[in-house]
Specification:
This protein is mostly helical and about 325 residues long. The protein is built from 16 helices and no strands. About 50% of the residues lie in helices and about 0% in strands.
Length: about 325
């Protein structure tokens, strides 16, 4: 014996998307909308680029340096010869200088990378380019005399001339008193002439065999060893203590998202440390790791619950959720 129970069957709900459209119709031209939108975006892009773009500063070249600050150029060239420049003592990846390079505590991070782009400042920046200058008997004689001397003699000539330049009024080579400088004054003067003509820029970027000369490592290192590039950077508010890592030239804000990284360079102990780059890198790596592990760190992961800033930001949502 079977029994049946009559139960009311609930009507199926029909999806609104499946219902036929009963509202008004209007012609829609997607091609016209695309053209209008493209024109508006292009005009806005041009206007905003004109108003907010960075200034078009001319590149600083060795030729510009030699013309604007010849005394600084000569002093820097002499420091490349006697091995006292910043590049000569930088360490890896340019020179194999013992105990040089930044460290993170006891870890010599810079030396671990090794010498990947070897640079001999005397040969690469001064002697090599000068050897390529043709039809100059005085220069050829100076190069021959310098090459025939012992390394100690070469350094003695360069060091004596560097000291004399530092004591001369305005560092002017013409005001240096007479002394035994060997061929160094001639070498430095001819290198200045080569740079003023623009030939040194080409000589330092065309030492490789590739067809296109695009390796500007050596010109940039030579520029960085002098004072001219630093003075230009400070004038544009790009020095490290001027938040230069995130600034662009002039009053433009630059990459504002770098503020957290460059902030550490403005405070001690980073601002006074020779290992600032390594220390800041290590600190940012630690902060990035902590940020990634926030959901797993007890106490730290509870901060949003203890300080519910998110409820203030999404107050409209939580207002509707709290309604009965």
């Amino acid at each position: 014996m079977t029994t049946t129970t009559d139960r009311p069957v609930a009507p199926r709900r029909r999806s609104r998307a499946a219902e036929p459209w009963a509202g008004p119709w209007r012609r829609y031209d997607i091609v016209k909308e695309f053209v209008v939108a493209s024109v508006v975006v292009a005009v806005l892009t041009l206007v905003l680029a004109v108003v907010f773009s960075s200034p078009d500063e001319k590149p600083i070249t060795l030729q510009a340096w030699a013309k604007a600050a010849p005394n600084d150029f000569v002093a820097t060239a002499v420091s490349e010869l006697d091995g006292q420049s910043g590049t000569a003592n930088y360490g890896a990846p340019y020179t194999n200088t013992p105990d040089a390079g930044q460290k993170l505590g006891p870890l010599p991070l810079q030396r671990w990378g090794g010498v990947r782009a070897p640079v001999d400042t005397a040969t690469d920046f001064v002697l090599g380019p000068l050897r390529a200058v043709p039809h100059d008997p005085a220069l050829t004689a100076a190069l021959t005399t310098y090459a025939a001397a012992t390394p100690d003699r070469q350094n003695g000539w360069a060091s004596t001339y560097a000291d004399a330049l530092s004591k001369a009024p305005d560092g002017d080579p013409a005001k240096v008193p007479a002394d035994d400088y060997g061929p160094v004054p001639t070498l430095a003067g001819r290198l200045l002439d080569l740079a003023t003509s623009g030939g040194l820029d080409g000589a330092l970027t065309s030492e490789h065999t590739q067809f296109y000369a695009s390796d500007y490592t050596k010109p940039l290192l030579f520029l960085a060893d002098g004072s001219y590039l630093k003075d230009q950077a400070r004038a544009q508010h790009l020095a490290g203590d001027q938040w230069g890592m995130m600034n662009e030239t002039g009053n433009y804000p630059g990459q504002a998202w770098l503020w957290l990284y460059t902030f550490w360079y403005q405070i001690k102990p980073f601002s006074s440390s020779d290992n600032a780059d390594a220390l800041v890198w290590g600190l940012m790596a630690l902060l990035s790791l902590l940020l990634a592990l926030v959901p797993f760190i007890p106490g730290l992961r509870s901060i949003p619950r203890i300080i519910p800033v998110h409820r203030l930001i999404w107050r409209g949502y939580y207002r509707t959720q709290n309604r009965p």
